[in-house]
Structure formats: C-alpha cells, structure tokens
Amino acid sequence: MKLTMASSPHSHSHKSLSRLMQTVILACIPGLIAQLYFFGTGVLIQLILALVTVSISEAIIMLIRKRPVWPALGDGSAWLTAVLLALSIPPLAPWWVIVIGSFFAIVIVKQLYGGLGFNLFNPAMAAYVLLLISFPVQMTTWMPVSDLLANPISLTQQLSVIFNGFTSAGFSVDQLRVGVDGVTMATPLDTIKTDIAHGLTVSESMQAAIFNSWLGQGWGWVNLGFLIGGLYLIKAKVINWHIPVGVIASIAVCSAIGYIAAPGTEPGMVFHLFSGATMLGAFFIATDPVSAATTNRGRLIYGALIGLLVYLIRTFGGYPDAMAFAVLLLNMAVPLIDYYTQPRTYGHGVNK
Amino acid sequence: MSQLKELFNEGMWKNNPALVQLLGLCPLLAVTSTITNAMGLGLATLLVLVGSNVTISAVRNFVPKDIRIPVFVMFIAGFVTIVQLLMNAYTFGLYQSLGIFIPLIVTNCAIIGRAEAYASKNPIHLSAFDGLMMGSGFMVVLVVLGAMRELIGQGTLFDGADLLLGPWASVLRIEVFSFDNQFLLAILPPGAFLGLGLLIAAKNVIDAQIKAKQVAPPVAEKGPRARVTSLT
Question: How does this chain sit within the bilayer (chain B) (predicted)?
Fold first, then answer.
C-alpha cells in the first residue's frame, strides 16, 4: 500500500466546476418548461441567441487575453449566465436586446474584472439592469399567457417577431399583446401596481383577466417550477439553504406585515412569493457563489436584505419588480457583510 | 524649448487632468453626452484655465502665501463669469444645454490645481502654455468621450454642432447609423463612467507597451550582502 502525503483539505466533494454549472442549468429546466408552456417558444429562441453570443464573446476575450479558450468555455459558467439572462427577459424582445445583454454580461461585467471568480457583480443581473434602463419599452413588453391572446402565434411567427419586429401577417408585439377582450395586458406585478396607483383595491385589480383568482396566470407555475429546481439544488448540495431561505423569509415577513397593515393595497404574501422573479432570484440568481456573501451568517443577512429591497421596490419604487436591482445593490455590500460575519477561527478570539 | 515640450507632454498625456489626475470629473461625466456639449465645456474650461494661469502667474509675487487660495479662487470665478456671459451672449443654445455646469467650472479642481501647483511658481509665458496644454488635454478627453457616447447612444456625430459654431455647422452632423431605439445607457451617467474607465484602461495599455519597448537600464552588480544584525 502506498502512503500518499497531501496537504489539507483531505476530503473532497469531487464536484468539478463544470459539473456544478451543469447541475444548475439542469435545475432551471422545470421553470423553463413552465415559461415555454405559458409564454411560448420565444424563450427557446432567446436561449439559443444568448448561448451563441456568450460563447463567441467568451472565446474572443480569451483569445485577446491569450488564455486557452476551451477551459473557460467548458466550465459552463458563461452558459449559465446566458440561461439566466434568457429566462429573465421578455420572450418576444427583439434579437439585439439579448445579444447586447449577453455581450455586456461576459465582456464588461465578467471578463474585464478578470474572469470567473473575480466579478464583483452577478453578470446576468448587471446585463439585465443595463437592458432595462437602456431599452425600457422592449424590456417591459411581456406577453400575457398564450391562452389569453386574441392572436395566438406559432413558432415561425415568434421567430419573425424577434428578428423583424412583425409577424408575417404584420402584427407588431404591441398588437399581439392585446388579449381576447381587446385590452393590452401587462404583467401581474405591473397591473397591481398601476391599479393601486389609480386608487383601486387589490381585489378589484385582481378581476383582470391575467389573474387566476389570486395569482397571475402562468406566473405562479413558472415560480413553482423554479422552486422545484431550487429545492433540487439544495438537495444536491450545489447551493446552501441560507440565501434562498433568507430571501423568501424576508419577502414573506415583509409582505405579511404589509398585508396586515393595509389589506386593500397590499397583494399579500403568496402573491409576492409566486410573482415575477422571486423564486428564480432566490434560488438561482442570489446564490451565485462568486458575487454572494461567503459565510453562513453573512448569507442569511445577504438574502434577507435582498428580500427586503425586493419588497420595498415592488411596493414603493418605480419598477414593478426588483430582483436584479436588489441583487446588484447587495453585491456591493458583500465585502462589508463578509467582514462583519467572519467566523471565529478555532482556538482564537474567544470572548473574554 | 525642452521646457515647452515637457509641458506639452505633461498636459496631453503624462499628467492629463482627466485620465491621470482624474480631476474635474463632475463636468466630464455630466456633459459628455454629445461632442458639441463636450467641446463647448472643454473650450470654456480651456479659456478659464489659460486666463487664470496667466493672471495668477502675474500676481504671484504680490499675493501673501497665507491667503493665496481665496485670491486664486476669486480670479478663477472672475474668468468663469466672463466665459459664462460670453456663452450666454453668443452661443445661447449651448449655454442652455450646459446649464449649471458652466458656473461649476469654478469648482473644477483641475484649474485650482494648476494655479497652485504651477502658475503660482512659474513665469507668465510658461504658465500660459501650461494652461493651454492642460486645458487641451482635458478637452481632448472630453471630446473623445463625447464622441463615444454620442456614437453608441444615438448613432450620430456632431449632433447640434450649430449651437456651438453657428448655423453653418449644422452640415457637420453625421448620421453614422440609425436605429429606432436610443441606447440610453451610453447617454445616461453609467455610460460616462464606463467610457472613462475604458479610456483610462486604454491609456494604461499604451503606457505599458511603451515601457515594454524601452530597454531596461542595466542593473549595477552588487556584491553579496553580509548579514551583520542579530547574529547571536
């Protein structure tokens, strides 16, 4: 028997980086299927565009930096960024939106800071915010779920919209968004926010066709899909439970308090948890190991503050959803959080 | 002559107010959304800088050291007021689009910095040249940044040049490419920060390449160091 001497750590989890990234991408599938079912195959087209763009951008930057191309691409982190970005933007956004976003995420946010492991900000969310403030119209034209469309559209029609702006019959995205009753529809979060600003109560607002008694149609299922994927990630020990629990608990507590304080103008806990990007953000975006806090106590604080910001911006801010803003703001706070939550080294610093 | 060349190098490259000293960033980031705005503010700053450098250099031997800063600031404020009134009179459109950033030239650290660091210690002709070079260095960066942001943001160059140069200049407007949607990020402040960051990075790359080309001076052989302390 050969005795090998190696330095610590002595027990490995045998998870390679590419394996981890693949697991996360696989865990997106339930949510992806829900989005495909409710919002059409446009999601898939965006996904392909994003994957192609990030691969090319990453390869070019690696060539410029004179580094080997394949290891950087093969670790899958760029593809994960592409998947997350494609899942967050409206399925029928024009093709150049996702191309600009993917390019920005990889070149500016990730590689200019030194590549994987050095980026201060979550690349997918920084790109999302760039797109949201640069192209507010394109980035907020979410289609209502396919059942509600007056003019249901096929895959080729969606391709045509994404690349030309019009279907072959000459409908623009705005015309396509018109529902069966002839009213243009926004996302549930947006509708609630606008209606409350117009003096309606939540229950009056929820009479609109996009709501399915108390949740946005389709959105509840999409969030459920990401919840299932996220729980699998925790089970597979790819992510720790601290950040998702922090985010979800914080949103739940805030929205419960809000609902108790003002039941007429607050949609309540379940709506907040199963609308917009809550589950995607809590399990897939906030848990990015590079830009998130690194200690367990820090992760809880980080998650809780994200949840708080999401709730505050949704309720009082100018935007209907806020996962991207919240994650970026907390990315900035990570060094501070890590500094104050450093675990005690064994044998040092016992309270005197 | 070599002194003038040194001043040229310092202002335009080695000690550029915008890229190296990082002074006067407030106007730099706020008004560079188009070339016209950038050039307007750059010219105004250049005028103030030359004027203040000359005046401060002329009175440098009469101003008591203890109160020099207030005196310098007063000179600078005087020149800023002159420039502001001139722009109000002759380039009213530009005056309106630059707004508060013209009076704010007073607080531009690049100007008080040159007054303190150079003009208060050197004769008039050198101070004037220093002001010219520093001002030009600042203006070049403003214009390059303005061009980047205008091109990416709205696909044009020299949009609204007639505000600065008179009605004939409207022919200068070049529509490089047109799209239905402005790329708002380039026009909003984040675009200015990103653009300036890229410019500074480009300058550092060029500097590094120049340094790499120069042959390193031979290191003098040193004898081995004998250890003389803590030899117990």
Answer: Multi-pass membrane protein
Residue B148 lies in a domain: yes
- Structurally, how many domains does chain B consist of? 1
CA A57 to chain centre: 21
Measure CA A197 to chain center: 26
Please, what is the average pLDDT of chain A? 85
B57-71: per-residue pLDDT in tens?
998 888 888 888 899
Residues B133 and B8: beta-carbon distance below 8 Å:
yes
Question: Which of A66, A99, A104, A134 is the best substitution to test chain B (most B C-beta atoms within 10 A)?
Answer: A134
Range of the domain at B79: 2-191
Within the 169-228 window of chain B, which residues sit less than 8 Å (CB to CB) from chain A?
A: 181, 183-185, 188, 190, 194
Q: Which residue of A has its CA nearest to B154?
A: A134
Residue of chain B with shortest Cα separation from A138: B181
Residue predicted with more confidence, A170 or A223: A223
Whether B219 is in a domain gets the answer: no
As a whole number of angstroms, the distance between CA A114 and CA A141 comes to: 34
Q: How far apart are CA B190 and CA B29, in angstroms?
A: 9
